Recover the amino acids of this structure.
């Protein structure tokens, strides 16, 4: 680029990526991105899972290692909200917890400190705290928040910092309907003050003020091999910026829409492991029976006297605003919540707290949630992640059988991830990790399949694949599905029972 | 109370010291059966107390917490920990008389008062469990004859005990039965079931004795584990400053260097740690460590002798009685050292660079591990115990220095370890003064500056043979083999 253009860019506050190649450790490389963002534009980055949407967003926040080309004109004050940053914050908090070898339990950083320390605009932060309904949670430890609540804290931090560039990676995932509308309205009020770049997996969620779309795609394998021989250095997957579309251009915009809505092919769910049968359940008993279930921290009541019976073959959808205790209720069933011992809970014939172990309970459950994904921080291969579903473990601690390996291969094929069987799980993108964890939950054909916002982080195509899989499973007789989601359009045919939780605190 | 070890005849002392074996998975076939339906009452709700309790309950066992009345009335943190997690909480008077097993998970220093308060309340034939044998072996606490006394000690911090269990795994655990208190012969069955309940059997269980655990644990923690790392940190840092190395770099090299070089130790023993060096650097490190071993051997012998005779615990208990005057003084002195006060600089040091520029640190770890192992085995401690309390635990302690330097290390380890660490450090720093005069930045800070990496074949073979034939390497490779069988399949 000649110096004149550069001066021009500075004058115009343009952000310009010129043949920028950015690598993220060994996991991912963005290849030769040419892209210009001018101040009055608002972009959405989209593309299939693993194409580098989050990577491109992160690159704008100065994350990653520029290996070629250049990124010019990034403002100083950039704010990014993403799952990766969220996961990192949680990991930091967990690390503080690790520091308890002094035999003291660490309480973690309170929400108020997360929000108000180093805050540019306290007043704005204060009003956002109220709008997001976090006022009652200010004293709570950050790591004790629910998924949606942590997300809200991140959003408030970013917005109250008055950034010159606002990057929002999947800002709407995990938010309840009311919060979503409020956030969209707030963002719309900012369009003249700050350029925004959003990563959206759901094309339909694109706010009206978006002016441009960037579409990324994975670099094809055969080409990649040639490249690797030449560069010899970059490993992992690679993504390219395939096209940019001005929203005014109807023809190009429709073409992109088509591209993102491919039909899912005919599916068949891989069989359960014939060599390892679960103990038989008493058909006369419900799968789950909660009686007056209550969860309480100090004086704060999260779940209040809930009665809920799940009969075999009764598929349920659970909904409710963020913080209404959805995840808490589920963890009473899975045995992950310590207060499951102070409640009247009957699961799979076990009256909890009578000498059964959690492994006896978990063997009947397949489970996927955002918390699980955060906890799945061990380094193991993609194939082992699926197989670990047979053992209900995070990581593998036992040798797997041939039959389990065969089934895992079938799942990998179904997800189109055969070639990544032996790759380390923790180097995959968030969406690809999610797909594997869904397979892990389904692999043993559990009597109860709990899917807590399973589609979080999935692109349109994979979301359709997962929803189709869930429908298939609902049609079968062996698995009862318990499904949690916020998105009205993600209805599953076959689910006829609904439980809506309300916020108590 | 008299030192229990000193009341035993020599043959019995030796027999007790010689206990330690890695248990086979089939020995845990009965699971938690021996504890099923029994009432387990935990005393102390810190990180170990709470997390062990959570695991035991999730394994189907009946767990509750006995706290002091003040802790309950004032709703202290320990009360919150237990009650928010849905446990029954009560006073000693309320819960201890109902207990089949009492789990004493309080700090060493409180053991005498806790056990004196609890013992009269315990029902006939119940079991008292410890996680460290100091109270029994060194303080000579005499437990009522009808009570069974066992030890179950997960070799990791409490948060990890829980995190590994939740993943479906566990942490390595040491168990023991106090032979004077096993009236019904059920001690081993209870200890095994307890280890299963916390998930320990999945990661490997060592069967030891109270005496072997205490005498080897004390020796390891005060010499190689904490003492050597503290002394080495201070000496290496000051030397680098003297040699004109950037303080931020020097601070980072040490703070994270111990962790990096001992990671190699964990995977492949002293041999692998030295194999990470170039051939000339390896020979240099070997020579330095031989020199260090000659200088420090009398100090290691003195520590072991004082531990065996009970002199160490006697002086430490005198300090306890004197409001920890010495301990607190030393703690304050450590906080004022240059290394502690200089933050790690914002420079990147690659993994290999920690080895290349930290040759002296590698030499110190090697010398410390080998001396501790040699001294322990010479004193009658079996090789397996000596391995675990020297080489095996070094990376765990190095990790605490990486977090927040010496302060974190000393805060993390027990008061007993901290006291021993200071004794060692005070003797070792002057002991190495002359040695350090000959040290330049080529072995700490900058790395060897050589035109080529050539070495004499005969000398290299000599060094490699010496490294590989040290007895700590023989027992280490066997034990690491067992552990690898149980390790996570990555």
């Amino acid at each position: 680029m000649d110096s004149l253009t550069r001066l021009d860019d500075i004058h115009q506050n343009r952000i310009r990526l010129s043949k920028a190649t950015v690598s993220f450790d060994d996991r991912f490389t963005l290849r030769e991105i040419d892209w210009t963002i001018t101040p009055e534009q608002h972009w959405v980055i989209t593309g299939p899972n693993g194409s580098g949407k989050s990577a491109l967003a992160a690159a704008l926040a100065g994350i990653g290692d520029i290996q070629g080309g250049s990124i010019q004109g990034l403002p100083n004050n950039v704010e990014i909200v993403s799952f990766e940053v969220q996961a990192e914050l949680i990991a930091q908090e967990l690390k503080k917890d690790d520091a308890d070898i002094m035999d003291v339990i660490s309480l973690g950083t309170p929400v108020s400190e997360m929000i108000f320390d180093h805050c540019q605009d306290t007043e704005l932060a204060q009003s956002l705290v109220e709008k997001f309904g976090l006022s009652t949670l200010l004293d709570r430890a950050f790591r004790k928040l629910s998924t949606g609540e942590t997300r809200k804290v991140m959003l408030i931090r970013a917005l109250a910092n008055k950034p010159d560039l606002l990057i929002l990676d999947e800002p709407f995932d995990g938010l309840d309907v009311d919060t979503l509308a409020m956030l969209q309205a707030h963002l719309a009020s900012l369009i003249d003050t700050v350029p925004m770049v959003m990563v959206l997996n759901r094309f339909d969620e694109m706010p009206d003020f978006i002016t441009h779309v960037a579409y990324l795609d994975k670099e094809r394998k055969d080409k990649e091999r040639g490249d690797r021989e030449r560069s010899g250095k970059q490993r992992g997957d690679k993504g390219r910026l395939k096209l940019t579309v001005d929203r005014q251009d109807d023809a190009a915009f429709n073409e992109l829409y088509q591209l993102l809505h491919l039909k899912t092919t005919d599916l068949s769910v891989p069989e359960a492991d014939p060599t390892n049968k679960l103990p038989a359940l008493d058909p006369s008993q419900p799968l789950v029976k909660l009686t007056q279930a209550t969860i309480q921290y100090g004086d704060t009541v999260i779940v209040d006297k809930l009665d809920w019976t799940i009969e075999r073959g009764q598929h349920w959808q659970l909904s409710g605003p963020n913080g209404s205790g959805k995840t808490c209720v589920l963890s009473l069933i899975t045995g992950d919540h310590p207060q499951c011992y102070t409640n009247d809970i009957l699961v799979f014939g076990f009256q909890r707290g009578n000498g059964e172990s959690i492994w006896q309970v978990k063997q009947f459950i397949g489970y996927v949630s955002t918390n699980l994904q955060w906890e799945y921080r061990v380094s193991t291969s993609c194939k082992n992640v699926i197989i670990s579903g047979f053992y209900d473990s995070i990581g593998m601690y036992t040798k797997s059988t041939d039959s389990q390996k065969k089934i895992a291969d079938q799942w990998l094929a179904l997800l189109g991830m055969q070639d990544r069987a032996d790759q380390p799980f923790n180097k995959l993108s968030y969406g690809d990790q999610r797909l594997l964890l869904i397979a892990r939950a389904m692999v043993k054909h559990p009597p109860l399949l709990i899917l807590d916002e399973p589609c979080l982080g999935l692109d349109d195509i994979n979301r359709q694949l997962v929803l189709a899989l869930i429908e298939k499973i609902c049609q079968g007789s062996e698995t009862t599905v318990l499904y949690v989601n916020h998105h009205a359009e993600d209805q599953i045919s076959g689910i006829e029972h609904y439980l809506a939780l309300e916020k108590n605190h | 109370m008299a030192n229990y070890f000193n009341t035993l005849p020599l043959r019995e002392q030796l027999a007790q010291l010689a206990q330690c074996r890695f248990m086979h998975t089939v020995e845990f076939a009965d699971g938690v059966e021996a504890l099923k339906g029994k009432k387990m009452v935990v005393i102390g709700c810190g990180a170990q107390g709470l997390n062990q309790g959570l695991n035991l309950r999730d394994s189907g066992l009946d767990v509750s917490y006995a706290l002091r009345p003040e802790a309950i009335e004032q709703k202290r943190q320990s009360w919150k920990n237990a009650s928010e997690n849905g446990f029954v909480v009560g006073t000693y008077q309320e819960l201890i008389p109902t207990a089949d097993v009492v789990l004493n998970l309080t700090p060493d220093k409180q053991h005498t008062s806790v056990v004196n308060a609890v013992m009269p309340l315990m029902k006939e034939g119940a079991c008292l469990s410890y996680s460290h044998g100091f109270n029994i072996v060194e303080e000579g606490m005499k437990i009522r004859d009808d009570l069974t006394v066992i030890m179950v000690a997960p070799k990791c911090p409490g948060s990890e005990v829980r995190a590994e269990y939740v993943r479906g795994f566990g942490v390595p655990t040491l168990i023991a039965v106090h032979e004077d208190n096993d009236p019904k012969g059920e001690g081993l069955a209870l200890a095994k079931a307890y280890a299963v309940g916390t998930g320990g059997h999945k990661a490997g269980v060592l069967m030891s004795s109270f005496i072997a655990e205490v005498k080897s644990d004390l020796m390891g923690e005060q010499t190689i584990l904490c003492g050597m790392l503290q002394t080495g940190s201070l000496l290496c840092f000051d030397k680098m400053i003297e040699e004109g190395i950037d303080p931020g770099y020097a601070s980072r090299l040490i703070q994270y260097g111990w962790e990096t070089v001992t990671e190699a130790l964990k995977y492949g023993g002293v041999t692998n740690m030295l194999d990470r060096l170039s051939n000339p650097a390896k020979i240099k490190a070997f020579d330095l460590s031989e020199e260090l071993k000659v200088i420090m051997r009398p100090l290691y012998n003195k520590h072991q002798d004082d531990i065996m005779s009970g002199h160490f615990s006697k002086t430490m208990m005198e300090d306890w009685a004197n409001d920890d005057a010495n301990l607190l003084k030393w703690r304050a002195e450590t906080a004022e050292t240059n290394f502690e006060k200089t933050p790690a600089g914002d420079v990147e040091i690659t993994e290999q660079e920690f080895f290349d520029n930290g040759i002296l640190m590698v030499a110190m770890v090697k010398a410390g591990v080998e001396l501790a192992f040699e001294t322990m085995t010479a004193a009658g401690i079996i090789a397996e115990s000596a391995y675990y309390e020297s080489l095996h635990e070094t990376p765990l302690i190095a990790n605490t220095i990486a977090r927040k330097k010496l302060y974190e290390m000393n805060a993390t380890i027990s008061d007993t370890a901290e006291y021993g660490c200071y004794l060692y450090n005070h003797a070792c720093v002057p002991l190495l003064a002359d040695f350090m005069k000959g040290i330049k930045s080529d072995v700490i800070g900058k790395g060897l500056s050589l035109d080529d990496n050539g070495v004499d074949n005969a000398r290299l073979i000599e060094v490699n043979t010496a490294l590989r034939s040290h007895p700590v390497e023989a027992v280490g490779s066997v034990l690491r083999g067992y552990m690898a069988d149980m390790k996570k399949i990555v």
In short: Residues 2 and 413 of chain A are 48 Å apart (CA to CA). Chain A touches chain B at residues 97-105, 297-298, 335-336, 338-342, 355-360, 375, 378-381, 384, 388, 391-400 (CB under 8 Å). Confidence is low (pLDDT under 50) at residues 221-234 of chain A.
